[in-house]
Design brief:
Helix content is 71%, strand content 1%. The protein has 313 residues and is mainly α. The protein is globular. A two-stranded antiparallel ribbon has the order 1-2.
């Protein structure tokens, strides 16, 4: 935890308190994301506004805002100020939105529906969807870097957060997991390889969301490593649950088609372990994440982690 902060006794948080905290933050997240795009659309030529419209489609079409909420909760859990984590919260959501736009492209998952709406490339064309994802990734790092200011200690925290986010999105994280996903279309992987892929595709960015928030709040290396372990376990569980919902969920609730993984012969922990063993593995990972997170004594973090597995969409 933040070495300058004494151990705190957290205030109890019931479900109503949690929902109130979550809903207010989601409203502010959406407002700040909208403002970031609106500010860049001013006095721009029509062609650039077209790109910003495609970015808006991917970034502002709904979503649970789980990753920015994790960043905010981690800042508090680390003993720092939630306010310090806001640039990181926006940045991780921009990275997530970029990844979804690109995942939906015909060259990857070829999806037609996302959050109950036509996917970005169907509305704006494939080329513009590629550019929208590229631009959101750049905007994420611009947003986070702009928080550095002139204070050396704050700049060091931002540098740490930038490194964590870049690593999570890069070849050893999300992009590497996507490369594994593509490779597994032409060969049958082991269950262990699938779990590694799902950890990279989903776990790394969720772990970075916690790490970015904690780093901006002043967490030291030991706490950052603890947050990383929490995020990897929870994120892998989250992806397994996502695979289970893709098999048997309600499209109206999910906001996307179901059964698509099976139709494409996608390799996953679910396809190799079967529903019962996959669900058990998700529960084991979720319990591991909750046990690791208990050291931070954060009701917000605990409830967010539980909501990642106990969900219908």
């Amino acid at each position: 935890m933040n070495s300058t902060t004494k151990t705190r006794t957290p205030r109890p948080m019931n479900e109503a308190d949690f929902r109130r905290w979550r809903d207010r933050r989601v409203e502010r997240i959406n407002g700040l994301l909208t403002g970031a795009l609106d500010a860049r659309a001013q006095e721009q030529p029509q062609d650039v506004r077209g790109l910003l419209s495609a970015m808006r489609h991917g970034l502002l079409s709904g979503g649970k805002r789980l990753r920015p909420l994790l960043a905010l909760a981690a800042a508090d859990a680390a003993g720092g100020r939630e306010a310090a984590a806001w640039p990181g919260a926006l940045a991780v959501e921009m990275i997530h939105a970029y990844s979804l736009i690109h995942d939906d492209l015909p060259a990857l998952d070829d999806d037609d529906l996302r959050r109950g709406q036509p996917t970005c490339h169907l509305v704006h064309g494939e080329a513009m969807a590629v550019l929208a994802g590229d631009a959101l990734q750049s905007l994420a790092f611009e947003t986070l870097a702009a928080a550095a200011g002139r204070e050396p200690a704050k700049a060091r925290r931002v540098a740490t957060a930038l490194r964590l986010l870049a690593q999570a999105a890069g070849p050893l994280g999300m992009a590497g997991g996507q490369a594994q996903d593509l490779a597994f279309e032409s060969r049958r992987p082991t269950a262990e390889e699938c779990l590694e892929m799902e950890k990279r595709k989903t776990g790394e960015l969720l772990a970075a969301s916690l790490g970015v928030g904690a780093a901006l709040a002043g967490a030291g290396p030991a706490s950052l490593e603890a947050f990383r372990r929490v995020g990897l376990a929870a994120g892998t569980a989250f992806q397994i649950v996502d695979d289970l919902l893709n098999q048997s969920g309600d499209p109206a609730v999910l906001g996307k088609a179901v059964g698509t993984d099976a139709q494409r012969g996608k390799a996953s922990a679910l396809s190799l372990l079967g529903p019962e063993k996959a669900a058990l593995k998700a529960r084991q990972l979720a319990d591991q994440a909750l046990e690791l997170a208990a050291r931070f004594k954060s009701p917000k973090l605990d409830r967010l982690l539980r909501s990642m597995v106990d969900r219908r969409n």
